[in-house]
């Protein structure tokens, strides 16, 4: 019989990074629970489309293929039906699990 998770185990899981895979390129990066997907991708040398970075302009709209996210803002610029269809805004989305996201416009950038 498996033992229940401890408080220390739950705290460790809450601070663990999640792997994110970007389709169709099959690029991966780690996203910390303290950063948006945009910030995590940028740290890994990947540019995701963006403009406002606060969830209102929708320039970064992408598709969540697999996994779960939460938003840093109460109501990002997506309709309920768009959320149900799997759309997300990486500029204000935080990975809650390993993810697969579809972002054909993603680009590699040089880190300085």
Describe this protein's structure.
- The structure is a single chain.
- With 112 residues, the protein is α+β, with helices and mostly antiparallel strands.
- Helices cover 18% and strands 29% of the residues.
- The strands form 3 sheets. A 5-stranded mixed β-sheet has the order 2-1-8-4-6.
- Strand 1 (18-23) and strand 2 (27-31) form a beta hairpin.
- The longest helix has 8 residues, at 7-14.
- It is globular, with a radius of gyration of 15 Å.
Distance between the termini: 50 Å
Instruction: Give the rounded overall mean pLDDT.
Output: 88
The stretches of 5 or more residues where confidence is low (pLDDT under 50) are 1-12
The coarse overall form would be: globular
Total count of helical runs of at least 4 residues: 3
Residues in β-strands, percent: 25-35%
Radius of gyration: 15 Å
Strand order of the largest sheet: 2-1-8-4-6
Q: Structural class per helix/strand content? A: alpha+beta
How many distinct beta strands?
9
Largest sheet: 5 strands, mixed
Topology order in helix (H) and strand (E) letters: HEEHEEEHEEEE
Helical content (DSSP H or I, runs of 4+): 10-25%
